[in-house]
Amino acid sequence: MRGIPLMFLALVGLCVLATGCIGGDDTPTTLKIVPAGSLLLPMEEIEAEFEASHPGVDVQVEGHGSIQCIRQVTDLHRDIDLVVVADEELIPDLMYRSVEGGEGNYTDTYTPFATNRVVIAFTNQSRYADAITSENWYEVLSRPDVVVGISNPMLDAAGYRALMVTTLAERYYGDDEIFDAVLGNHLRPNVTVEEKDGVTSITLPEVLKQETGKVRIRDGSIFLLSLLDAGGVDYAFEYLSVAEEHGLKYVTLPPEIDLGSAACQDNYRTVVVRLGFQRFGSIGSDRVGTPIVYAATVPNSAPHPDLAREFMAFMVAEFGKGHEGWPAPLPA
Predict the structure, then answer these.
(1) Which residues 6+ apart lie within 8 Å of 260 measured at CB?
(2) How far apart are CA 209 and CA 198, in angstroms?
(3) Residue 259 neighbours by CB under 8 Å, 6+ apart
(4) Which of 127, 141, 126 is nearest to 253 (CA)?
(5) 8 Å CB contact between 119 and 137
(6) Diameter of the chain by CA atoms?
(7) pLDDT tens-digit map of 201-230
(8) What's the pTM?
(9) Residues 219, 156: contact at Cβ < 8 Å?
(10) For residue 270, with 0-12 CB atoms within 10 Å meaning exposed, 13-18 middle and 19 or more buried, which class applies?
């Protein structure tokens, strides 16, 4: 009779070892990541690889404009494990602030890991697709029958960078009508432009709308892709990596204006976009032109900080490999 319980115990032991079906919680750990929308395709690959090596982890990725990514923590107070943005300056500006009603910051450190540059993306069906070049792009985008897409600068770094690029273009090409012709004259309420001590400041209203059908705005640059595909816009200010990932046509811009060159950072800093976002206390009003650098941070309120740092290290290492169509790794 003793042989039966011994066999039973052996089978139970195999079950525990193989599947953990006794004496444990099989519910996976959920790791919540909010990246800038321009990172969604790379993050899909990173998520799959990380989950494959961490079978007890469910990585949930939710893309937003970069400012909206940070607001998930600072204003909406969600339990987010990792914030990944397309502008490294946003993290110290918006998260190195005391937590409302408590002590300390929303985060204390961040890790830069990739770069990018602004391009003008389009498709074969875009008006004047066979005529636009890196030299005449602003002339094409200024034409009355051309529809231009940008992301909302109040929510997304690509949006305020579109304003910076067109302003920098005025000095580069010696034409002080580029900003107004491409974007400024088509936004309401009025956008105020002032120049003082060699710095051009663009002040936005709290709610920015396109005045005519010439400029169309979406919450994030990634959401402009469907408009391009459907012919709703002819051209969009996009990141190089996004244009390449999605097989779009694009023209590159001079490094003096494309926000992609560290050597031109002094030139970029001559443009400031002042956001009109008064509804959320954490939103810093001044965005200064800088080279595009992506960065990630683990909020101090992260539910799984150690696992989040492990994921961040894995992500940074993947970007460091220089995958085609991804934002470029930081120079060594």
Answers:
(1) 115, 116, 117, 118, 240, 291, 292
(2) 28
(3) 117, 118, 161, 164, 165, 268, 289, 290, 291, 292
(4) 141
(5) no
(6) 97
(7) 999 988 887 767 899 999 989 999 999 999
(8) 0.89
(9) yes
(10) middle
Mean pLDDT value across the chain? 90
Which domains, ranges and CATH numbers included, belong to the chain?
22-115+294-329 (3.40.190.10), 118-274 (3.40.190.10)
Q: How far is CA 245 from the centre of its chain?
A: 15
pLDDT digits (tens, 9 = 90+) for 109-132: 999 999 999 999 999 999 999 999
The residue whose two tokens read 């936005």 is 204
**Scanning the structure block, which residue is given the tokens 């080279």?**
291
Q: Which H or E element spans position 138?
A: helix 137-142
**CA Rg, the chain, in Å?**
23
Q: Of all residues in the chain, what percent are helix, strand and coil, respectively (each to 5)?
A: 35, 20, 40
CA distances from 27 to 20, 30, 111, 224, 298 (A): 11, 9, 30, 37, 23
